[in-house]
Amino acid sequence: MFQLDENFLQDIGLNDLPEDQKKPFLQHIYDELELRVGTKLSDGMSDTQLQEFEAIIDRKDDIVVAWLDKYVPNCHNEPDFIRLQQVTDMDVNDPALRSEYAATKWLEINRPDYKSVVNRVLEDLKQEVIANRSSILN
Question: Do 52 and 104 share a structural domain?
């Protein structure tokens, strides 16, 4: 995957951005990426799918638990769950960890192309930033 960090700023030619602007700029890029990816991924989804995914993203634990019980009943033993738990250092019973894992699994099942969508949208966003680099730095 990708990281929005100093290397990202260097890739898009904004490593000279003032230090106090780097974190807010990266947060803006993250928010914009999330919005654009969400819009792309929602194309072609049914209302039921959108509602289900929204409930998972909104961390409605009863829905998350029910979804995991149905589609990944032994999620605690899944390598992806274990990796996510180790990376986040969250407790295995943390509802936020469950929701994060469920969102990823939901996308794998319902939008198996989601990684390529993220990569395409990120590349488009990078090109927009590069094209406007001089105005961003001024």
Answer: yes
